Amino acid sequence: MLRERQQFLLLALLAADTLAATSAFLGAFGLRFHTPFLPTPVEYPSLGRYLPLLFAVLSLQAFAFQLVGLYRIRRERSKADEAFAQARGVTLTTILLVAATFFIRSESYSRLFMVVFWGLDLIFVFGVRLGIREILRHLRRRGRFLRHVLIVGAGALGREVAQTLRGHPELGLRVTGFLDDQLPVGERIEGREVLGGYEAVRSVVQSHRVSQIFIALPLEAHQELMKILNSLEGELVDVKVVPDILQFITLHSAVEELDGLPIIGLSESPITGWPRVLKRFLDLSCAALGLLLLSPVLALIAFAVKLSSHGPILYGQERMGLDGRRFLMYKFRTMLAGAEDDLGPVWAAPDDARRTWVGRFLRRLSLDELPQLWNVITGEMSLVGPRPERPYFVEQFKARVPQYMLRHKVKSGMTGWAQINGWRGQSSVERRIEYDLYYIENWSLALDLKILILTLWRGWRDRHAY
Is 294 in contact with 342 (CB distance < 8 Å)? Predict the structure, then answer.
């Protein structure tokens, strides 16, 4: 029955993709040659000339979607992963189509038509597959198309698996029960019974029609893993292993591959690949625009600083940034020249006598931080991120604050999640770390934009800025 349902779903997906591609093809033809929105074509070809391409599109799309895994049924795949796979599949389809038409010398096809088809196909494929996904989610929430799940291991990890599955009924994964050598048969865990020990896995799979197993064993019991896998030999059941590394994960985790060898990273930065490129583009464009628009203000501040006291206009202070690298962070000078010659590195105090009259005003509104736009342009800093600290204080904090150095897994920022929530200056370092790690774990461009907007909305004025 399960295999029949999967085959029916695959046919439904194939039919939906065919409908989406056909609609995108006809829509692209109409937009390109029969609307005033695009440049006037050299000629107006008949639809009959383009129809042979439609059959090629359908075949190429089926091949491309199979290649990127869109015809593998994975209930746990998120919407974002699904959308990314769809984008890759549609893009590959269009590239193959362009390549195929390149070798057809007898006919010439519009390249702009291909671009429009790519955009429409992406929209239509996403739409029809999202519709199917939502229908399935609704049916599964109502108890239809369920898969019976067995959890091997009733400890903390196994219970977390059960809680997660219960929190996502749209996946259609219903926990049948647990297996555990340490608990008596019949004891209820998370509303489900312990059905036996590890050695009973095969009989339970057969008697309870289990189609999926989550092995969630603690580290000290992992020697049982091979015994369990050997006992399942010959059974048509999906097996997933949940590694007991949750207590070791300190930041964003990731699974990588080294020449076929799977490797799990426990403290990886989430800002890699294309997200890193997009964040850098946001930094460059906004910092350059900021310097341009604020140049009169910067010139006025520089003139005031020069008048306020003897010394340079800008002050470069050593800070620690990404991966612990040191750099000079620039600020408008707000204190008397040589203010730390006698005292050494110290925090600024509310009524610090070292401040100049202009510096008091600049620090209160955080205008002394504006030259850091240049640090952003040079790549030493980002607009948004954990605020960089002086190496002298870093050495103190990392010795007494757990996970303090994880904040250096991303670029330091001019503003950050901790700062807009009031944790800056001489506020609690522990609370700042908490907010910094939240930012790193939940980073997105949308979160960066939110922080920038809140920074401008609330102003740079802060009770800890002095």
Answer: no
**What is the amino acid identity at position 96?**
L
Residue 199 has φ and ψ, to the nearest 5°, of -70, -15
Q: Are 164 and 179 in contact (CB under 8 A)?
A: no
Indicate yes or no: pTM above 0.85: no
Rg of the chain taking only CA atoms, in angstroms: 30
∠ CA 193-198-204, nearest 5°, is 60
Choose the final residue of a domain: 141, 171, 186. Answer: 141
3-state class of 437 per DSSP? helix
φ and ψ at residue 151, rounded to 5 degrees: -105, 120
Residue 240 and residue 215 in contact, taking contact as beta carbons nearer than 8 Å: yes
For 108-134, how does the pLDDT look when each residue is reduced to its tens digit (9 = 90+)? 788 889 999 999 999 999 999 988 888
Count other Cβ atoms within 10 Å, centred on residue 459: 10
Q: Does residue 63 register a pLDDT over 80?
A: yes
* Residues facing 238 on adjacent strands: 212
Using one digit for the tens of pLDDT, what is the confidence trace for 250-272? 555 666 655 566 666 655 666 77
Does residue 266 fall inside a structural domain?
Answer: no
Same domain, 305 and 451: yes
Task: Tell me if 406 sits within 8 A of 398, measured CB to CB.
Answer: no
Q: Could you identify the residue written with the tokens 């219960």?
A: 166
Q: Is residue 259 part of a domain?
A: no
* 8 Å CB contact between 97 and 56: yes
